[in-house]
């Protein structure tokens, strides 16, 4: 299981050498084995990347993320043709019934709300946490009663204050959006590796969104980001412009820990486990076979 995430801040040249990522920044050189890498985040727009390296990244299933002028993720290099039977899976994806999509989405929403409830209880808002767990119990197929929205109204105002709104431009949202973007890229990477078309979502269906399916499956992972940003906020570490230190802390969330039925996995491994269960859930016509992550207190995963 690949696990390392590399952040390129100072530019330089990225190349392939002896089947390793070679990073040259002035007189300094670094080498990282490709088999260890999951994600490369390039923040400096002066970075040079060679074609042989891009080909090797695709072959190894490593995703590369580029940033815009504000150093926010804006593009992604994804592997192509990693899955052994892409046409078979494409047919399966196209044939998923609306009823099945609604059942899958209900499972995603229930787990997201329960993870949000964990965050609230962890922060001491037990009454609101209990309220969210009741919302989760009321989720119907397709979330037809919009329990996700009801939960969000309670959740964000408790976590970030009663005047907070996700549409505002402020340091909290800037940090949330940055971390969500990195997480979304990791989900998209796993989808492509398993042969899914990320454009075809089970709930999200925007015609201009190339990652509808990634936006579906990022949902249960979002509360982990929320808890980390809340921690930075309480420690007075949030600034108008994201600092390199904060970016590193947010990217590092990919190696934090989540639960699957009492077992511990890194976020990257949890994403892989989640996406890996999708095919079996669809083929079995049973949405409950979809494996989704459970929140725990912030903790970096220890690789053995």
Provide a concise account of the structure shown.
With 304 residues, this protein is α/β, with parallel strands linked by helices.
User: Could you give the count of β-strands?
Assistant: 10
Our Rg estimate from Cα atoms comes to 19 Å
Tertiary shape: globular
Q: Which structural class do you get from the secondary structure elements?
A: alpha/beta
Oligomeric state as shown:
single chain
Mean pLDDT level? 92
Order of helix and strand elements from N to C terminus: EEEEEEHEEHHHHHHHHEEH
Strand residue percentage: 15-25%
Distance between the termini: 11 Å
Helix content: 40-55%
Supply database-style keywords.
304 residues; alpha/beta; four-stranded mixed beta sheet; 10 helices; globular
How is this structure best described in words?
With 304 residues, the chain is an alpha/beta fold. The chain has ten helices and ten strands. It has helices spanning 51-60, 86-94, 98-122, 126-137, 147-160, 171-193, 212-217, 222-234, 244-251, 267-284; strands spanning 4-8, 13-17, 20-25, 28-33, 37-42, 48-49, 63-67, 73-77, 257-260, 263-266. The strands form three sheets. It has a four-stranded mixed β-sheet, with helices on both faces. Strands 4-3-2-6 form a four-stranded mixed β-sheet. It has a two-stranded antiparallel sheet with strand order 9-10. Helix 6 (171-193) runs parallel beside helix 9 (244-251) and helix 6 crosses helix 10. The chain is globular, with a radius of gyration of 19 Å. The relative contact order is 0.13.
